[in-house]
Design a protein that fits this description.
Largest interface: A-B, 48 and 49 residues
Protein name (chain B): Acyl-CoA/acyl-ACP dehydrogenase
Shape of chain B: globular
Strand content of chain A: 5-15%
Shape of chain A: globular
Strand order of the largest sheet of chain A: 1-4-5-8
Strand content of chain B: 5-15%
Order of helices and strands of chain B: HHHHHEEEEEEEHEEHHHHH
Helix content of chain B: 40-55%
Structural class of chain A: alpha+beta
CATH superfamily of the largest domain in chain B: Butyryl-CoA Dehydrogenase, subunit A, domain 3
CATH architecture of the largest domain in chain B: Up-down Bundle
Number of strands of chain B: 9
CATH class of the largest domain in chain B: Mainly Alpha
Organism (chain B): Lysinibacillus agricola
Domain Acyl-CoA dehydrogenase/oxidase N-terminal (chain B): 3-93
Helix content of chain A: 40-55%
Structural class of chain B: alpha+beta
Number of helices of chain A: 12
Family (chain B): Belongs to the acyl-CoA dehydrogenase family.
Number of strands of chain A: 8
Oligomer: heterodimer
Keywords (chain B): FAD, Flavoprotein, Oxidoreductase
């Protein structure tokens, strides 16, 4: 069984949590932003991202020489929790902060780090994650976007899909095939390139989400030139590099707290109604949240101290169980309290309900479907 | 846990692995006693863990003790280890004298025992292991309030009973019996602390059994073949494995967080959350384990039931889930802060329900 460490936050960390909370409450009061469910995907606000950047809260764990604060993974965990708990619009810089920065720190060239990281930290440079393709779904090894070697760089042709916020992003870390597909070794011949989304030959086409909002995109590449210095890590090593990011991507508080603003508002409503019976039912939600959070923080602590390969299985578990939990929140809520879900509702709980119901189907899909994660976890458990 | 603590856990686990098997559990279930196993625990000083040295304790703390209790749950060790150690923990917690012999406890939900002029009268059911133990630590009600008392069970009329798992759950009837020790009147805070500690001991036992059920089930899916391959190769079985492993991981993490909170005296509502969550865990884990084991798991020959029957019994003993649910709901209602997040992440010592003294 997985032996995950427990974490007791230090006084400094508790203080940091309060500082972040106070800042967010102040900005909320000023009207800088509106709370929203699933704000890490659908709450994109470049002005807010710049504000966060000014606070030094992007790239919190990164080296100071690139503009980071060299703080711990646990500090970043706390920061992330506070953003999500209040539903702050962090989507613009989210992927660059969570994935691209760590990827470049691990595999990037010094030139790439010096060029990109300080911009990301300021909240002025956003990255998309270019993995999925039409028909690839969870079978990422079937990626067929090609990059052909040419003088001084690579020529990219193909198409990515489901790229969150590509229309706002400046760049995309794109998984491409740099040598012919080998049926016996499907994971070979893949590489990661940084594609400038404003380069010639790139077309970004919106795919509207079922709410009518624009988060996802299709991205087409037609003879897009990517210079050699935009190759991340080694040519042919793209699969292994991509895998290393997954534990960070899967185990964070964003896999538990996407619908937290709704839970919070449910409790407030029940308190206003003096509804003890409703609160008893809600206490089960609190217990589930607490128990999942233990697991998620345990993985964060392992990432801080250990080898990220050791945590890929519990990280997959956190993602599978956490997203199932956040997905269940609107369904539980509507049985406890009467709501009228509408996206443009005046009453907060009605709006949070609408956002949660309509966004929930995606939770157990994005970042690895539950079915694929179950396979990862089952194999890991059997191998133990 | 420190390295030394890990060592204690290793030693106890080895001891249990070697000494406890299905036959021993079966034998005790038929009403016998396991003297060798008890003596082994006693001689190794395990029954004195977490008792202070001035009271003859063996050192170690509540986290060590709860981890040993967890292991007795993992091996279904058929001895009143949790009962004896918790009885002593309660005695020390209420500034009474700890005792050396076998002991048990009963925290009656209703006012079963009355205390008048140092004499105890009343009847309580479901007392664990009463027939095999000498001392009973229980609550008694006087005109002043509720006290913790210690009383010699030889003065009681004992009627045998068992829980679903065949563990002794006896009735004890006292008529004007002499109590050996009486605590001062217990404040509501202290009563709450006692209930919380009791639930923490139960959580330890349950965590052990859950862990074992997971091990047995995963192992079984590797050994059992159907349609020409081990059943873990079937995707639908894999789904069962994932849910079982997930609930087990959640139980272990919850238990670790509970013990650490108790240890650091930062206990807030962890025990309540864990106890509420364990209700779902037990239901899921026992259902999946039996489904995966299929017919063989429903037989007495297989050991699975020694753990699932224990969980089905233990979940109904002690403070009920509904009482913990009620407590969290009341706390949410009265929580002065205006956000749930603030309540969940609060760390100030002023909010806790429980301050474990010492």
């Amino acid at each position: 069984m997985f032996h995950l460490p427990t974490v007791q936050f230090t006084q400094e960390q508790e203080q940091f949590r309060l500082d972040v909370r106070t800042f967010l409450q102040d900005e909320l009061a000023k009207g800088t932003f509106t709370s929203k469910c699933d704000s890490w995907l659908s709450g994109d606000d470049p002005e807010f991202s710049k504000l966060i950047g000014q606070k030094g809260w992007i790239g919190l764990t990164w080296p100071k020489k690139y503009g980071g604060q060299e703080r711990s993974t646990i500090d970043r965990y706390i920061l992330t929790e506070e953003f999500l708990a209040v539903g702050a619009p962090v989507a613009a810089h989210w992927f660059a902060d969570r994935q691209t920065g760590p990827l470049l720190l691990r595999y990037g060239t010094e030139e790439q780090r010096e060029y990109f990281l300080p911009k990301i930290v300021k909240g002025e440079c956003y990255f998309g994650i270019g993995l999925s393709e039409p028909n690839s779904g969870s079978d990422l090894a079937s990626v067929s976007t090609r990059a052909e070697k040419v003088e001084g760089g690579w020529l990219v042709n193909g198409q990515k899909i489901w790229t969150s916020n590509a229309h706002l992003c400046h760049y995309m870390v794109t998984l491409v095939r740099t040598s012919a597909f080998d049926g016996k070794n499907k994971h070979a011949g893949l590489s990661q390139l940084i594609v400038d989304l404003h380069a010639e030959g790139v077309t970004v086409v919106p795919i509207k989400f079922l709410t009518g909002e624009h988060h996802y995109n299709e991205v087409f590449f037609d003879n897009v030139f990517v210079p050699d210095n935009m190759v991340v890590g080694e040519i042919g090593n793209g699969w292994a590099q991509g895998l290393a990011e997954l534990a960070f991507e899967r185990s964070g508080p964003e896999r538990i707290l996407s619908t937290f603003p709704l839970i919070d508002e449910l409790i407030q409503e029940l308190k206003r109604q003096n509804n003890l019976e409703g609160l008893k039912q809600a206490s089960k939600i609190v217990a589930r949240l607490w128990s999942l959070r233990n697991l998620s923080i345990g993985v964060a602590q392992l990432l801080e101290t250990g080898n990220s390969e050791d945590v890929s299985i519990p990280a997959a578990l956190v993602k599978a169980f956490g997203t199932k939990f956040e997905q269940s929140i609107p369904e539980i809520t509507r049985l406890i309290i009467q709501t009228y879900p509408t996206l443009d509702a005046h009453r907060k709980i009605d709006r949070f309900m609408a956002e949660s119901i309509l966004h929930a189907p995606g939770f157990t899909i994005r970042g690895g479907t539950s079915e694929v994660l179950y396979g990862v976890v089952a194999k890991g458990v059997i191998a133990q | 846990m420190s390295e030394m603590k890990d060592m204690i856990v290793d030693v106890v686990e080895r001891m249990l692995k070697e000494k406890v098997d299905k036959d021993l559990v079966d034998t005790v279930e038929q009403g016998n006693w396991a003297p060798e196993l008890w003596d082994l625990f006693k001689e190794n000083g395990m029954t004195a863990v977490a008792i202070t040295e001035e009271n003859g304790g063996a050192g170690g703390d509540i986290e060590d003790l709860l981890n040993i209790v967890r292991l007795t749950g993992k091996y279904a060790a058929p001895i009143p280890f949790a009962e004896t150690t918790f009885a002593n923990y309660l005695l020390e917690f209420t500034s009474l004298q700890v005792i050396e012999d076998l002991a048990t406890y009963m925290l009656c939900p209703n006012q079963a025992f009355t205390l008048e002029n140092g004499k105890l009268t009343g009847e309580a059911i479901q007392i664990p292991w009463a027939r095999h133990t000498k001392h009973l630590v229980t609550l008694a009600h006087s005109l002043e309030g509720t006290h913790l008392v210690e009383i010699d069970l030889s003065q009681a009329e004992i009627k045998h009973g068992t829980n679903l798992a065949g563990e002794p759950r006896d009735t004890a009837i006292f008529h004007h019996a002499n109590v050996s020790q009486v605590s001062a009147v217990l404040s509501p805070d202290k009563m709450h602390a006692i209930t919380t500690l009791n639930t923490a001991f139960q959580l330890a036992l349950m965590t052990g059994a859950i862990d074992k059920i997971n091990d047995l089930t995963v192992q079984y899916t590797k050994e059992r073949e159907q349609f020409g391959r081990p059943i873990h190769r079937f995707q639908l079985v894999q789904q069962h494995i994932v849910h079982l492993a997930g609930e087990t991981a959640i139980a272990l993490a919850a238990f670790n967080n509970v013990t650490e909170a108790l240890q650091m005296n930062k206990q807030n509502s962890e025990v309540a959350y864990a106890r509420i969550r364990f209700e779902e865990i037990i239901q899921t884990v026992t259902t999946i384990a039996h489904q995966v084991h299929a017919a063989i798991g429903t037989t007495h020959e297989h050991s699975l039931h020694q753990f699932t029957r224990r969980l089905w019994s233990w979940r109904d003993e002690g403070a009920s889930t509904s009482s913990w649910t009620n407590l969290v709901a009341t706390q949410l209602l009265e929580n002065s802060g205006d956000s749930l997040w603030g309540y969940l992440t609060s760390f100030s010592s002023s909010s806790p329900l429980l301050k474990v003294e010492g």
